[in-house]
Amino acid sequence: MRRTVITTPVLAAAAVLLLAGCGGGDGDGGGAEKDTPSAGRSEQPEKDGGDGGEKDGAKGDEVTREVTLEVEGTGKTQIAYVAGSNATEQVTLPWSKTVELSLTPAEQKVGVLVSVLPGTVQDLDGQLKPAPCAIEVDGEQVDDNNDGRDVTGCTHLLK
């Protein structure tokens, strides 16, 4: 019982931190390079095509990544996720969600957060633990929560 009381606030706090950290990024000018003054992230690279030639892409355009979020287990649980949009859902396990995310050249440089925060499930001895989760990018697993041992869920900085 005590474990449930401790785990629930920890998961709720982690969800709030994950969701609060997903803002736009226009506000505080994280660098002194040419990306900071541009009002529209995707407009400037298109207008100044020769400026953003740091990436391997010949066009310097957006790159699309396929991201799959997975939560294993049985029964129902609450999950929170960030992958292009953010949401919380009551789901039946096992659960997965696949989205295609297009990254602008600036997002390719600094990264975009994708994450899933699973709710709790019962383990073999009846104790509650976070459900096992994993994140795959283009078919390759990039993070997991060590079969539910990591209470922070699964996160990845997509570039």
C-alpha termini separation: 41 Å
Instruction: Outline the low-pLDDT stretches.
Output: 16-58
* Strand residue percentage: 35-45%
Categorize the overall geometry.
elongated
The H/E string reads: HHEEHEEEEEE
Going by helix content, strand content and strand pairing, the class is alpha+beta
What does this protein look like?
With about 160 residues, the protein is of the alpha+beta class. The chain has one domain (about 1-25, about 60-159). Helix content is about 20%, strand content about 45%. It has three helices and eight strands. Strands 1, 2, 3, 6, 7 and 8 form a six-stranded antiparallel β-sheet that branches. Strands 4-5 form a two-stranded antiparallel sheet. Strand 1 (about 65-85) and strand 2 (about 85-105) form a beta hairpin. The longest helix is centred in the first third of the chain and has 19 residues, at about 1-20. It is elongated, with a radius of gyration of 18 Å. About 25% of the residues are buried.
